[in-house]
Amino acid sequence: MAVIKNISKLIVTAYNKSAKDVIDYINAQAWIPTSSDVGLVEYPGNFGSYTGTNGTFTQAILQVTINATALVIPVTTPVPGAPSLFPISYWPTSGYIRIDDEIIQYTSVNPRSTSVSGFDEFQLTSTANRGVLGTTAAIHTAIVGGPAISEILLGAVRKIEYNKDQGVFNIWTRTTQEVGTEQSYGAGVITTTYESYLIPCPENVVSFFETIGGGG
What is the pTM assigned to this prediction? Predict the structure, then answer.
């Protein structure tokens, strides 16, 4: 079986772009990961996104309607009879969340005891944190029972290999998540969990690849 290992970069031509755009991208040393002409998968780097467990067991609910530039997202728990429960105390202190069709990068959390809104809050640094990972910043309306907020996990690239016999680039990723569970008397336990994924990428969509140490 012919397998090329230790691949550090895959370049995929963006929609409506051509081989010339790929060549221009490569010639514009150093490679620009923000180019809209190509898609780039790197090791080390991130590829793929997944819905985490937070948002299922410790789900947060939007409490105040926010516009497309809001930097504070007030939330509360959906658990009946527990209005003082801080639902995002068991979430990472920074990460990604999804509201409706928008993914947002939050940089810290504010407990209700010190927040301006009186609710627990996801805090953002700037409007650049809105509409990330290919989504669009939007208005989100607070309604009874929703919208629910889910945690989004990024897949950290662990390895990229090219199986020439099968005509596929295999991308191994892993997510890391801190999951909190409420225990008796208000105590809590934080558990770190890992999930691994194998993502096959057909060779006919890859325009160029580079191995660690050069070549491609």
Answer: 0.78
